[in-house]
Each structure stands twice: as C-alpha cells, then as structure tokens.
Design goal:
Blueprint (H helix, E strand, L loop, with lengths): L1 H18 L11 H16 L13
Helix pairs in contact: 1-2
C-alpha cells in the first residue's frame, strides 16, 4: 500500500512537471526533472513484452 501510494504521488508530480499547465508564460525549468518525469510516466512501456524488446535508458 505504501509503495503504491508513493508511486501515485510520483506520477502526479511528474504529470504536473510534464505538462506545466499552470502557466502560459515561458519559465525556466530543470531539463533533468522533465526527462525524469517523462521516464517515470513511460516506465511500463520501456519493459519487454511479447511484441518488443526492453528499451534500456543509460545516463
């Protein structure tokens, strides 16, 4: 339950960071934070399944 609630919190924060829907003006942002949030949102699609191989992200 704790892990699931942490994951939900992380996804919510990531979605807010990703969309930046709260502003209409240009603002400075942390590029690494945006990439991290995108990877969190897409994490399940990077795993292997019967249709494709896993995608490995290296830093």
């Amino acid at each position: 339950m704790k892990v699931a609630s942490e994951r939900i919190k992380d996804i919510s924060i990531s979605l807010c960071t990703f969309c930046r829907a709260d502003t209409t003006e240009k603002v400075a942002c942390n590029l690494h934070e945006g990439i991290e949030s995108t990877l969190l949102i897409l994490k399940y699609r990077l795993k292997a399944n019967e249709k494709h191989l896993a995608i490995e992200v290296k830093d």
